C-alpha cells in the first residue's frame, strides 16, 4: 500500500475511510491491502481475500475470464477503469477496477478494486419485473430513494424516502432539481443504460427543500421487456453528502495550506507540471515566480510567531488580489510563496505583475490589538518557459537562483557604501 501511494498517510486514510469494500493490487496483480470495510464485509469473496494478502488476486478469480481480461487491460494501461457484475449465492455486487498511476509520469503502479453491493438493487429489479405490488411494498419501506421513469426520464413512481432525504417528492422529470453541472452527465448515464441494457452508476447533486445541494450516488438500471427492449428505468439513489464532505476535507488537507488557504507545495508542483504540459502542447509561454518575505525572521523575533502567522496570511491575501483569475498562487512553505503566470507574452508581463505586487505591499500592515504596524517587503525571482528551462525542476532552480541574487542586492549595496566610507 505504501509503495503504491508513495507512503502517504493521507492516501491511506482515504482508502481506510471508504464506505465500500476495497482492495489494492500492485501491477503484478498481488494483493497489497484490503480496507477495514472489506475485512468486515459479509461478502464471501472479501472474507476469503482477507486471507490472501500478498497473494495473487488474479488467481482468486481464475475462473472469471472476462474479469481477468478487464484487470489485465487496466494494469497494462489499455483502460483506466473496468466494471463487472458478480453474483454469489444471496449477494450480488459490481466490481470496479481503477488504475493507480504515479504522477506526473503516468506510470501504472497497480489498481484500486472497489466492491459495490448491488444485492438490494438486484432484488428490487426482480420484484419489479415479476410483480409491481411486491416492488411497491419494498420500495416504500426502503431508506434508499427509488424512482421509476420511462425512457425519456418522465417519473412514473418515486418512493416516499425522497421526502425524508430531500424534503419533497419530485414526480415530474428525473432531470428536475438536478444541479445544472450534473444534468448532462445524468443524461449520458441514462443514454448509456438504454444502449447497453446494463446498470451503471453516477454521483450527482440534487436540490434539497431548503435550496442546498445534496450529493447522492445513483445506480441506473434498465427494466427489459420480453422482446429485449428497455421498457423503463429504475434509479436507486443514496445520500452520500457526509462522504463527499469527508472527501472535501481530505482534499483540503492534501492540497491546501492550512494557514493561508492557498494551494500547498504538493498541489503547486502538480499545477506546474500540468501547465508545462499544456504550454508545450500549445506552443505557449508561462512564468513561475518565487517570492519570500524580507526580514520575516525579525518580525517573528520582535512580535512573536502569532503575529508572524498574521503577516503570512496578509501577504497571501495581497498576493491573491494581484493575480488574474487564470493564474495560480500557492505557499511552498515557511515564508516562501509562488505564482504561476499563464500564457504570458514576455518578460514585461512579469515585471508588470511584480511592480503591481510591490505597490500593493507598500501599505503598512497594522497588527490587530496592537498600536503598531509593520512594513511587508518581498524579494521575487522568476523563470520563463521555455527560455529558462524545459522542466519544472530547471524552472524552479532558475527562479530560486534569481531570488537569491535579488536578496543579495541590499547586502552588496551596503558593503559598497561601507567600502567607500573607509577610503
Automatic annotation (TrEMBL):
Q: Name one GO molecular function term.
A: diguanylate cyclase activity
Q: What residue stretch is flagged as signal peptide? A: none
User: Keyword annotations for this protein?
Assistant: Nucleotidyltransferase, Transferase
Which parts of the sequence belong to the GGDEF domain? Answer: 284-421
**What range(s) does the PAC domain occupy?**
200-252
**Pfam families from the entry?**
GGDEF, PAS_4
Question: What SMART domains does the database record attribute to this sequence?
Answer: GGDEF, PAC, PAS
Show the SUPFAM superfamilies listed in the entry: Nucleotide cyclase, PYP-like sensor domain (PAS domain)
List the InterPro entries.
Answer: Biofilm_reg_signaling (IPR052155), GGDEF_dom (IPR000160), Nucleotide_cyclase (IPR029787), PAC (IPR001610), PAS (IPR000014), PAS-assoc_C (IPR000700), PAS-like_dom_sf (IPR035965), PAS_4 (IPR013656)
Stated name of the protein? Diguanylate cyclase
